[in-house]
Amino acid sequence: MEESVKVFSKISALLDVLASVDDATPAELAERLSEPRSSLYRLLSTLERHDFVQPGLRKGSYQLGMRLFHLGSAVSARFDDIRSAATTAMEELHDQTRQTVFLTIRRGFDATCIERIDGEVVQVMILRVGGSVPLHGGAGARVLLAYQPTQFWTEFVSQGELHRYTATTPVTKDALFTELRTILHQGYSVSNEDVIPGITSVGAPIFNYSEKICASISVSGPRPSVGDDALAQTVSLTVAAAEEISRRLGAPTEIAAAGTESAR
């Protein structure tokens, strides 16, 4: 059983690497994963037989296979209602700010991006559609954490040491809990260079008909364009977008208004 878990972990790591690049050779994968090339050849051969990987654009390289596309499409369909409700508000927020807009959901202790619209600065953004970050990592993620019961906060920090992206990332229990209480009080989250240097993000909660948080919307861009003197306007636009999406999902007006602690 332990050996099977190790193999599965290797496969998971291999697929994660292939998801981050156009394609990769066994030699490149061996270097990235610190695994013997012979072991990766066997894994790739098995995955190719089951259509999880396929030949890449370069000779001898591999890329993700169509079976993953079909599986991903099945998972993606589960979030069609949220994406459909959010499309117009996301486009308007993007047009108003010219920055990157994210739609994220909570999945366990992670925030997963289910939609994004690229802004003027996209090369520094770490969160792709389908990608995840820990719930303390950035404005959109922390909003999803803030509106969970406090017992969940404790469970989250009890996992172990939180990843420190920059010097200002809230990684201690006291720092993170203080930040989460601030989010609940004001109804939105601000991330100032605590994930990527030079980048500010603003996130707001999205509620559904059951009066519970179901997603977050956030906008990210260079600090001078999103934060500093532009922060008040960015917050206003982001919160308004979140409230509009919440209404489209059937949330009562008093719950759709961001900052309602009873929606936890």
From TrEMBL:
Residues 67-251 form the IclR-ED domain. PROSITE patterns: HTH_ICLR, ICLR_ED. It comes from the Bacteria. One of its GO terms (biological process) is negative regulation of DNA-templated transcription. InterPro entries: GAF-like_dom_sf (IPR029016), HTH_MetabolicPath_Reg (IPR050707), Tscrpt_reg_IclR_C (IPR014757), Tscrpt_reg_IclR_N (IPR005471), WH-like_DNA-bd_sf (IPR036388), WH_DNA-bd_sf (IPR036390). Transmembrane segments: none annotated. Keywords: DNA-binding, Transcription, Transcription regulation. This is IclR family transcriptional regulator. The lineage of its organism: Bacteria, Bacillati, Actinomycetota, Actinomycetes, Mycobacteriales.
